[in-house]
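Fill in residues.
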């Protein structure tokens, strides 16, 4: 058995172009964070993925970062909106909206994710979710996977128990209690999808895929009004 957890740690390559909302945030054509298309002209990511709008490009319909496959949409950015109360020390409110300079072309390979609404049922412990990205594929590796990968993780209740009260109600935890499945560097800002809904943004965690240290995600449903407010005030 391979004891080194595979990556997006513990995951597998996705069917090309099947994760239609996945975005790659790039500077100088190098991937540095993930993101999620939520409207044709808007991408949601983590506040700790902030860069000046003028240097970011968002790539949609991307599968292999190392190969130009012909389906990519490479879009410039006109504005970035980091949450006004983002705290880089605690990662509270780790959420950021990116406005694309032009709307993405919605097609067979590019579709926005579904956001939670007031009526979306509360997430309960044990719910199975999927996280995707181009992060490192082996623990202690610094190389990104060129191929988009995904892994199934479970929502974990009682997260304060793992992180000594560094987790608050704006965060959710997901992973596997025995380790070996996690999001990792390079997957920051990427999507956590539960029951077809964008519930989390990859935010932080201790190490990668360590037992008892689940990944911590920004709880998207707490920011529905903020998202609506930013988008409506910028239209």
């Amino acid at each position: 058995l391979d004891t080194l957890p595979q990556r997006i740690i513990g995951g597998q390559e996705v069917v090309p172009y099947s994760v239609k909302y996945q975005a790659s945030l790039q500077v100088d054509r190098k991937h540095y964070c993930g993101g999620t298309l939520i409207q044709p002209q808007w991408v949601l990511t983590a506040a700790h993925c902030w860069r000046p709008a003028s240097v970011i490009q968002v790539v949609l319909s991307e599968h292999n970062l190392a190969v130009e496959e012909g389906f990519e949409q490479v879009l410039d950015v006109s504005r970035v909106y980091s949450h006004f109360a983002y705290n880089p020390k605690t990662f509270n409110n780790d959420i950021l909206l990116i406005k694309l300079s032009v709307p993405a072309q919605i097609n067979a390979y590019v579709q926005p994710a579904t956001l939670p609404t007031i009526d979306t049922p509360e997430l309960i412990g044990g719910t199975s979710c999927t996280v995707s990205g181009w992060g490192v594929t082996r623990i202690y590796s610094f190389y990104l996977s060129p191929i988009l990968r995904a892994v199934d993780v479970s929502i974990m209740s009682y997260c304060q128990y793992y992180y000594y009260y560094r987790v608050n109600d704006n965060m959710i935890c997901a992973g596997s209690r025995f380790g070996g499945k996690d999001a990792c560097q390079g997957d920051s800002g990427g999507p956590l999808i539960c029951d077809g809904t964008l519930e989390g943004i990859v935010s932080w965690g201790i190490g990668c895929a360590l037992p008892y240290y689940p990944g911590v995600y920004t709880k998207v449903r707490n920011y529905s009004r903020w998202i609506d407010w930013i988008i409506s005030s910028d239209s």
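The radius of gyration is 16 Å.
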